[in-house]
Amino acid sequence: MSTTMVKKQDVVRKWYVLDAAGKPLGKTAALAADLLRGKRKVDYTPNADNGDFVIVVNCKDAVLTGKKLQQKFYRTHSGYAGGLKETRYDRLMATRPTLAMTLAVRGMLAKNPTQAAQLKRLKVFAGPEHKHAAQKPEAWTEA
User: Fold this and answer.
1) Total domains, the chain
2) What is the CATH number of the domain that holds 104?
3) Could you say which of 14, 44, 102, 129 is the most buried, measured as most Cβ atoms within 10 Å of its Cβ?
């Protein structure tokens, strides 16, 4: 029995469009993370970066289930004493929905050196229009 290990020069990357309108933020982010890592490909190799490009549109229409809009926080710290800043997700989704989607996808990627390269292939847009039509992206449909 032989194991196929994909090489960097043999990787073929496709472009996919995910529509987040009316779908849970986490489920859309999990699907995007799978596509970015290449886990839905036949030749998936865990230690190689063979994922695809992902365009996420309509992030402003993604939903958070339960009481997450009021109870979940986005926290940053400046490094100084008293430098903690908190933003509730209802405000974050109203002002910067692309950041919320990017943070969700980033949290679902592997914490290793391939994470930065995978995040560069993630393109997130708040509305339905995107600027990557020249790449001829395919709309992702769950099979």
Assistant:
1) 1
2) 3.90.1180.10
3) 102
